[in-house]
Each structure stands twice: as C-alpha cells, then as structure tokens.
Amino acid sequence: MALRTRLTDVAEQAGVSTATVSRVLNGKPGVAEETRRAVLAALDLLGYERPDKLRTKAAGLVGLVVPELTNPVFPAFAQHIETHLAEAGYTPLLGTQAPGGATEEQYIDAMVERHVDGIIFVSGLHADSRADTAWYDRLLAMDIPFVVMNGTNPRIPAPAFSIDERRSMDIAVRHLHSLGHTRIGLATGQERYIPTQGKMRGFRDSMRRQLEQADPPVVNTLFTLEGGRAAAGMLLDQGCTAIVCGSDLMALGAIQLVRSRGLQAPDDVSVVGFDDSPLIAFTDPPLTTMRQPVEPMCRSAVTTLVSMIEGGPAPRTEILFLPELIVRGSTGPAPGERA
Amino acid sequence: MALRTRLTDVAEQAGVSTATVSRVLNGKPGVAEETRRAVLAALDLLGYERPDKLRTKAAGLVGLVVPELTNPVFPAFAQHIETHLAEAGYTPLLGTQAPGGATEEQYIDAMVERHVDGIIFVSGLHADSRADTAWYDRLLAMDIPFVVMNGTNPRIPAPAFSIDERRSMDIAVRHLHSLGHTRIGLATGQERYIPTQGKMRGFRDSMRRQLEQADPPVVNTLFTLEGGRAAAGMLLDQGCTAIVCGSDLMALGAIQLVRSRGLQAPDDVSVVGFDDSPLIAFTDPPLTTMRQPVEPMCRSAVTTLVSMIEGGPAPRTEILFLPELIVRGSTGPAPGERA
Q: Which ipTM score applies to this complex?
C-alpha cells in the first residue's frame, strides 16, 4: 500500500492530521504524548507495523495472575492491565488457571524464577478467605512488589483495588424494588470468597433497609452458567420474582432456568447480572447488569504497582470502585405491577 | 467445612466414589491417570486447595503469544492451550497484544530472555503475509521450538495448525444457497492476513461452483464489530440477502447494521459468523456460525510442541482442521422463499 494511503488511514483512525502522523512515524519532537500514543494505537489497530525506530525495549516484566479466561470479564481485566503496563514500558506475562492445570503458586514460582519486577493478582487466592496466604508473605520477604484486585484480604498487606460489593448490591436491590419486586433473591458463588461475602452482606443490608426483610433468600452455588441455573431454580421455588446474580454467566444460566420452566425474563422473572462482560449487551434479552469499572481499576492498579517497582511506597490501602447499573432488557415490572 | 462433606462434593463433581477421591488426595496408587485428573479438576472447580503432596513443580515455561483478548475466541484458545500445557507439566506464560501496547517482537524478546522452552503463536505475525518473518528465523537459529496456529506461512518452517478456510466457506455458502439465497456476500478482515486470503479464495470458488458467479461481492474491513457494520452496509447496498462474516464480532456488527436500516435478521438478511465464540449462543438472534475446533487444535499444537521440546522432530507440516456449521437463529429462508 502506498505511503500516502497509509498516512491518511492512520490519520483518520487517530483523529489527527497526516502531518502529525508523519511527525510521529519519523520520531520528530513537538507531538503531545497522548497524540503520539493515539497514532501508535491507530497503526496497531489498522495492522501496520511500527517503524523500527519506534520499537522500544521493554523495561521489565510484570506477572499477571488471573483465575481463568472462561468468564469473559477476566480477559477484559487482562487486556486493560496489559495495555497500561505496556504504556509504562513493562512487558506483561499472564498466568491463568484452568481446572486441573497449573496452580497459582506454580505461576508465582515461575514468575519469581524469571525475575519479574512485580505481580498483579486478579481474583487470586487472596480473594479466598480460607486459602493459605503464605505465598504472599514469601513475595513480601523477597521484596517483590505486588497488588491485588477484587478481594481485599486483611491478612495480605498490599494495595488492593476492589469493587464496592455492598453498595453494588444496594443499587441492584433499589432498582428491582422500584419496579415493584418484593420477592428478590441473591444467587452467587462460594461463600469462602471475599467478594461473595461482600455481596451477601450488602444484599442483606439493603433488603433489610429497603424492604424490612431480615432473612432474604440467598443461594450460594458457583460463578458459572450451571451455578446460575441451579441457584435460580432454588430461588424460584422460594417464590422470587427477581434474582440478583453474582456474575453475568450466572445471570445467563438463571435466564435459561426461567425459560426451562415455561416462564419469560423479564415478564415473569427479572434478572440482574454482574460484571457487564464484553458482548453481554448482545444477549437475548440484553442483560441488565452491574458494570465493573474495569478500565479505571486496571489503570489505578498498574500506576500503583509501577510506582512501587520504581521505589515508591506500598500504600496498604483498599481503593473501592463503584459499579454502575446498566439497565437493559432483563429487568421489568414485577408480575401484577404492569398496567 | 468437614472433610466428609468435601469428599462427597468432589466425588459428585468428578463422578467417582468418595473412596477414589480419598485415594487420589492421599497420593495412593491404583487410580487411572484420567480419573486422577478428573478428581484434581473437580477439586479446582469447587475451589478447594490441592494437598501439598499433589503440587508438582512445573517442568518448564512455554510462551504463548495471542494477538488480543477482545475477540472472545482468543481467550478460548489461550485457556485450552494452557490446560494442555499444564497437563504436560509446563507453565504457560501468555503475551497478548493491545493497540498501542507491547509488540509481538517485544514478547519474543522477553520470553527468550526468560528462557522459555518453546513458544506457541496464535494468529501472530506469521499470519500476516506482509510481515517481516525475521523473528521466527531468530528462534530457529537459537533452536527454540515453536508452532504456529491459524495462518500457515510458507516462509516459516514450523508445524502449523490451521482452519481449512476454503472448505469452511464452502460449507457456509452451501447452507445459504440451500435456504434460497443467491445474493451472498463475504465480509472479512484485511487481505494481508493469510486466513483472510483463504476465506476469500474459498468463498469465490464456492460461489462459482454453487451459483456460477465469477465475481461475488467481497468486502475487506476489520475483524471487529465496527468492521462488520461497515462491510454489511456495503454488501446490503449491493443487494445481498445473506452475509458470511470472517468473525463472530463482525457478524454481530452486521446484525446491528441490518437493524439500523429497519430490517430484521434473519427475515430480511441472513448472517453467518465464524469462530463460535463463548457466549455467542446467547445472542439475539442466536448466531449461526462456523465453529473453530479450538480444543482439538490446541491439543494437537501442544502435543507437537512438547514432543519438539523433548527432542522430537519438528514436522514441517500443516494440519488442517475442519470447522462445523452450527445452525442457530441468524440464518433463514431468502426473502420471497418463505411459504
């Protein structure tokens, strides 16, 4: 393809002039860093190779541990973390877990052996209230900086970046209550996980405050389609007309279960997901869900880790992020509330 | 939780007796390897930690390079490859690319520096007919085994595991033709990619053979939602009643475009995706798509790489995998063909 065409393509994609693209490609000064990044991103997006002179050696390696990639929210975390790490000059190496596969400690061993500069844990063992946290102590002893995301464990003295699970449940309950629902149940994962505990507390608090129910229906299964089906079945048996789910996968499973009983979502049963996973807006019905602010969470975690790697302090704080309620088509008026 | 409960849970999940679970957990002999793995997988799935004695040190590190995680088929490849690598005792380290982030060569540098035993490339630069393949020659010179997936490049002498793109297009065209469609268009990504070239050849061959059309409508945009919208607009302008897409994301974009014109899929326009990404069965309408046999492809690639790492030969062959047509709700009779 002619150079001219390429400049025009990239300029259009980046929303800048061809002169600016040319300056960036030739490594000339006088271009704002943000603009430079937009041009490089456009180049990558359109599938062009970067000129040799713009290829920078990575400063170091950062390990990234995520539990599994089958829940689509985890690839989204990985992608955003990798983008921000790369912007800071670090090459991310990702370890993910699969049933029967390598364990988190094997990844930590491999990463430490390979001299990573730091590690980011997303929903790792740190989020499991019953897990052995000795691995994290080892990292501290070796002076390897790390941060944890989603699941703040008081036993692990590291910066934590988490969802405000309690407020998120309050937002979901208020939404359903405003639609006239009073029989609302919570379907979530195993109680041993710290985010699950936060959701359960938040749900019960909100149901007590909003609906004066001291013991609302709560079912713990697994954060999967199958877990959602099983939990929804138990909640429908208890007369629920609305189900708040701990993950989008659980919500899709809950909708399957509703249909398998000859009912419709949202006409007979409203369902709220959690995560706002990629592509979830395309489901039938489009899922109402609590959106995790994945990008800002990842940006904060990476900025903090990079600062620690570069000698800054390790703030032992928990940064809480508030999810947004994204109302789509899986929630509606309670049966009997429709005009 | 009591040991008894845990044994029962795991036994139920694994479909074996509690006595078998107990044998596995205590590292006793007399359990088939397949059963042992099923028990470990059940343990992981249910979120229990493995007993210390079952924690094996990983034999080595294998690099895995995937282009990005926003297309949900790539996390699926990563997950299956990681599972099979872990079964073989290797710890996978994943490098993914994001626009503006680290490049494939930075990952290769980082992986080589960290002494990986081998590398698996999924839809990497090898799949780009115009890319510099010097990086692969360097790996060969350093005697680092590698295999490539999706995009067989004759300039790269490595075992290749790819989709039979040509036959896949023939299957899609036959399906649409059998529904009465004669104005069928192909919406796919940039022509520089080897899989795209295969799809274009396969589509044209099939349209010539099935419908005696020498020059059927083909539009090259990007393998994204936006690319699908743009391509579908151009194909509808050419009178197409059916669109074969190069990815599921493109197909979802095509359906958006169809609706933005006040038309319906499949009533007015049929759309076929490609990949059968996770969750794609939940879209509205459920997407008819060509399923990439991700699991068998990953198993073959890992088995071959591990054999190369362990001193076996590097077969310079291309293994082709045939996708399956999964008919769901986005394809239907051509307008005018309905009873």
A: 0.77
